[in-house]
Amino acid sequence: MTNINLRKFLSENKIVALLIVVCMIWALFGYLTYNTDTGMSGFLTARNFSNLLRQMAITGILAAAMVFVIVAGEIDLSVGSLLGLLGGIAAILDAVYGWPLAGTISFVLLAGAALGLMNGWLTAYLGIPSFIVTLGGQLAFRGAVLGLTGGITIAPVSPSLRYIGQGYLPGWLGNGCAIVLFLLLFFMAFRTRRKRLQHNLSVPTPVMEVARLIGIGILILGFVLVLNSYQGIPVPVLVLLFVLGIFTIIAKGTVFGRYIYAVGSNAEATRLSGVNTNLVKMVVFGLMGLMAALAGLTTTARLAAGTPSAGFGGELDAIASCFIGGTSMRGGVGSVIGALVGALIMASLDNGMSMLGVDTFWQQIIKGIILVIAVYLDIISSGVKRL
Amino acid sequence: MSEFLLEMKNISKSFSGVKALDGIHLKVRRGECVGLCGENGAGKSTLMKVLSAVYPYGSWEGEILWEGQELKASSIRETEKAGIAIIHQELMMVPHLSVAENIFLGSEISNHGFLDYDAMNARAQELLAKLNVHDINPALPVLNYSGGKQQLIEIAKALNKDAKLLILDEPTSALTATEIRTLLDLIKGLKAGGLACVYISHKLEEVAEISDTVTVIRDGTHIGTRPIGELTTASIVTMMVGREMKNLYPKEDHAIGEVVLEARNVSCWDVTNPERKVVDDVSFQIRKGEILGIAGLVGAGRTELVSTLFGAYSGNHKGSVHLDGREITIRSPRDAVKAGICMVPEDRKRSGILPIIGVGHNMTISVLNRFAAFGLIDEHEELAQIQGEILRLKIKTADPMLPIASLSGGNQQKAVLSKMMLPDPRILILDEPTRGVDVGAKYEIYKLIFALAKAGVAVLMVSSELTEVLGISDRVLVIGEGRLRGDFVNDNLTQEHVLAAALGQPTHRT
User: What is the pLDDT of residue B452?
Assistant: First the structure.
């Protein structure tokens, strides 16, 4: 009986199950990288934690938007190339033409959104399957970046652009952000409670509520303290957290978000309910393009250069993160936070195995196996049998 | 040898602690047809899944005797081998494979690993001839044939497997009247040849016609098994619902006002076959507070007609729609909902529900903007409205956030109705609103329809159940072969009149 209850709890709170997996992976690497001379574990240090988060930021930004694409019942195979193209454009504008940072960022974001919308238009309005449209995009965008850069690395980019990828938030600002975030959550919990009472809906007991808030507070505090004990919150991680917040709000709280899940659950029924399903799909691809642009800027900033091969295979990492994070291949189900934890799992594996000096080919094999196992665990834990 | 071909004794089955079946008995003799009746959710399908080993031996309690021997099957393959064939409500055909390939799917005739098409086609022809079917070409893809013909192909497939017991689950829900006739006659013929069958249907007239005994279950319990001679359709209904249904149609007076919607010269062409006209120059009017029934045989073009009004028809169409005397353009369901026209589509599963989304969120999908400021939904206000609707429509769900697919058909339909009532439409189109819905939920849906009419909504209802059309409509349109063949005030109108008009026979009414 407890077994069934545990299973039920985990299938309803997938995120808890995923976090347990993260802890297990960290514990394993922590054990394997333990150094008896220093009495420290190479994996479990503030410095490595900071690196790990920075490594996952780019995949995480892509995965956040990819969740929407997959939930809407589509796929986007072009984002890796699109990231490369937009990152290349950012490098050229910055390094060759010397555009101001604001100009570069706005242009790249706009271009990303436009190319994403184009993918969406071809899929939704012309009815070309997104697999085909974006497979074409994968080839075309990669070709475009090769043409634009002439196949060579564009460097050096300006320090202000580099800050986006390599900078850290000063400690006081990180603390400030944490306090603002906590106050925001506190205020929202309070408001939800009042609203629910106003509509005669059930509310959790005050003790539960306070316990939940304290738990979240400790998590935020721990996160900031660990990062501050190294160099502060890395800027790309801040960007990722910001994306996580916005996309979660879109998914859970907005009309548009509801439409995305509805379209993925049954597009025909959604259309017959008076929803403009084509527009919903097109905008989802637009958001994906926007996030590819953000990831492209971050990549260029982190490498301090535009390289023609940037983002190669990025779409597959993003898609794998979504699936590990519980997004359903058949659409209609998936969460942004789940995909980000999926990205964290992938990044942890990369980071830990590199630290142990595992050969790259083994790393790929292991990641592939983990992906399949993760999705299998998701299938059995959610109790959905596929005949 | 046992007297019975099949004896199911004291069958019980639970799903995570909830009893779906509790001590059901079912006995079938050779050459006998047993009608299995019960409301949706009563446990008929679960019982048949136990029998056909979709739920393998051991996952349920009780005993199944097959030809006197205990049957302990763990897969459908084993029960099929024993001679139990089940024909599901939704046909399980591979549309692009040929008739013969479908019949022999899983039991192909082969020669050293190569398919022997000649043998399969010849054998398929033979099987179909046994069913007195001569106009099906076994070499053509199944998609060339109508639902009724596909049903016959399914039966041929069952015969090929030497079925001794044929289970038919709602076999006529998508068939035309002539196809139903053919099927019923065929089953009678097969019975005479010694085949036993279990016939599951909401259409009690059919059950009464071909069954020898009827077993009724309700809420997973066994209510009774009696020979058909002792029963009437009314007494079966009583057993099914557990109370006497004195009045199936809760008619209420409602005032009828001026014309709200007028359709002029609507024509539609088939989606897959653009040469064929499916709706041919139909014009009609509907008034405020009026319930207008659209009767006709399946395939007469009724769904195409109403989908065109709602902007949901994907084929070519022409004609004009006038709202309050002004012509309006409706290009999409979105335009229609904005103009105050809503539609509950015919196929609930395919175009009505968002299966994995919560019941509540299914209901509000059309009116989300009502709860939103700057695109952000006020979930609490939304939830309050959802709970109000759940109470008003008596939707049975443990939690408003439960995925709608986990509810029974009747409750799903109520939620879909709610979705299309929340935008406060002036014209509500209902396409087969009670298909696959049990008697109790039907009654409540009718009550809702009358309440809408009372509130001044013009209700346009397409239905294949003539008793239903006559039971609740103020006026009846009859469509036959795409043309408007009658427009009758529902006053002493009989089923014969409507059917005659639908078939294009002269009627004596004006």
Answer: 94
Write down the residue that tokens 């993760």 correspond to: A374
Q: Could you give the CA distance from residue B257 to residue B391 in angstroms, rounded to a whole number?
A: 30
Domain locations in chain B as residue ranges: 4-241, 254-340+425-510, 353-424
Residues 6+ apart with CB under 8 A from B268: B277, B278, B279, B301, B304, B305, B308, B313, B315, B316, B317, B482
Residue B245 has a pLDDT of 54
Residue B424 — left, alpha, or beta (φ > 0 → left; ψ -120 to 50 → alpha)?
left
Prediction pTM value: 0.81
Whether B350 and A268 lie within 8 Å, measured CB to CB: yes
Q: Considering only the beta carbons, identify the residue of B334, B345, B375 that sits closest to A274.
A: B334
Per-residue confidence at A21, pLDDT binned at 50, 70, 90? confident
Cα A74 from chain centre = 17
pLDDT digits (tens, 9 = 90+) for B45-73: 889 889 988 889 988 999 999 998 898 88
How many beta-carbon pairs under 8 angstroms link A with B? Answer: 94
Cβ–Cβ gap B333/A273 under 8 Å: yes
In angstroms, the CA A358 to CA A350 distance is: 10
CATH for the A15-28+41-166+245-381 domain, from 1.10.3470, 1.10.132, 1.10.1670, 1.10.10? 1.10.3470
A172-195 pLDDT, tens digit per residue, is 888 898 999 999 988 988 888 888
Contact of B165 with B112, CB cutoff 8 Å? no
Q: What is the mean pLDDT of residues B426-440?
A: 87
Return d(Cα B303, Cα B306) in angstroms, integer. Answer: 5
CATH fold label, B254-340+425-510: Rossmann fold (3.40.50)
* Ramachandran class of B314: left when φ > 0, alpha when ψ lies in -120 to 50, beta otherwise: alpha
As a whole number of angstroms, the distance between CA A180 and CA A175 comes to 9
Asked whether residue B16 carries a pLDDT value surpassing 90, the answer given is: no
Return the HEC string of A117-140.
HHHHHHHHCCCCCHHHHHHHHHHH
Domain parsing of chain A, residue ranges: 15-28+41-166+245-381, 168-233
pLDDT at B331: 92
CATH class of B4-241: alpha beta
> In angstroms, what CA-CA distances link B425 with B138, B393, B444, B455, B457?
48, 17, 19, 11, 7
* Alpha carbon A20 to its chain's center: 19
* Nearest C-alpha neighbor of B344 from the set B306, B382, B287: B306
Which residues are CB-neighbours of B129 under 8 A, at least 6 positions away?
A: none
Q: Determine the Cα–Cα distance for residues A351 and A162; give it in Å rounded to an integer.
A: 22
The predicted pLDDT at position A288 comes to 97
Residue of A263, A272, A385 to mutate, interface with B, max B Cβ within 10 Å: A272
Q: Sign of the C-alpha dihedral, residues A14, A20, A26, A29? A: negative
Q: Which amino acid is it at A145?
A: V
CATH fold match for the domains B4-241 and B254-340+425-510: yes
CA distance B253 to chain A (A): 30
A1 confidence band (pLDDT: 50, 70, 90): very low
Across the beta sheet with B259-269, the strand order is B277-287, B259-269, B317-323, B326-328
Please name the amino acid found at residue B160.
N
Crossing angle, helix A336-356 and helix A14-32, to 10 degrees? 10
Angstrom distances, CA of residue B183 to CA of B150, B180, B211, B299: 11, 5, 14, 17
- With contact defined as beta carbons under 8 Å apart, do B350 and B302 qualify? no
Cβ atoms of residues B413 and B434 within 8 Å: yes
* Other residues' Cβ atoms within 10 Å of the Cβ of residue A312: 14
Question: Hey, which residues 240-279 in chain A have their CB within 8 Å of chain B?
Answer: 249, 253-256, 258-259, 261-262, 265-266, 268-276
- pLDDT given at position B482: 87
